[in-house]
Amino acid sequence: QICLSLVKLLFYLAHSPLGSIVLLDFQPRQFVMVDGNLKVTDMDDASTEELSCKEDNDCTLDFPTKSFPLKCSVIGKCEGINEKKNLFNAYRYFFTYLLPHSAPPALRPLLSDILNATGDLRYGINETLRAFEKVLHLYKSGLYLQKRPLLLKDYISLKGFRTVEGEDYKCWPSYSHLGCLLSIHSPEEAAAICNSQLQCQSFIITQHRTWTGRPLASFQSSWTDLIPDTNAVVYIKRSASSGERL
């Protein structure tokens, strides 16, 4: 969410009515999340000026660990230097820390491609935004899910119930520090996640959703202490419930 919102912001800056705008003091502290959207808190160090040049050798974009040769345009400006400077700063301050984590395994190669392409400045802001929107579409639609055996049949579902909230086993990346709370596309995906975790014996799906509209599922190491909740469904492994009375 943070990276996509940043890319949308940089897309606007690259195509603003004033021309391509560069953020000269590009630091994480210069941004804030407002209603799920990343915004710049200080525009004092923004500029529309692009580096003047006479030849391509005048257009080297330097960073502490990398340098990029750019072209000198016919009007004597380094082509796309503002856009590329913003994009590489987004890569080194945000993408490298956020993109490798928390995505479903099937989507990680696509995020790695974005990471590598922006780190080498092979992508401009237009290509980067299209790549992010493709990943978002796959994520929201569930098209990233690989065909696998149907596992939900191994669970008993009880509508209108959930387990008592409390601290349980942890997992990564969890929306809660007290237990294992993950976003899912469907109960079938939740069953696959539960089967992959040795501690998991049940999971609960409520009406709580993430910014992408995906429901949240809480994975539990037990299924006892059920309480009524009209907005929830608890799924219990048949193997865990065998010999027990529901």
From TrEMBL:
Keyword tags: Kinase, Signal, Transferase
Signal peptide: 1-19
GO MF entries: non-membrane spanning protein tyrosine kinase activity
InterPro entries from the UniProt entry: FAM69_kinase_dom, PKDCC
Organism of origin: Pomatorhinus ruficollis
GO biological process: skeletal system development
Protein name per its UniProtKB record: PKDCC kinase
Domain FAM69 protein-kinase: 2-116
Record-level GO cellular component terms: extracellular region
Coiled-coil stretches noted in the UniProt entry, renumbered to this chain: none
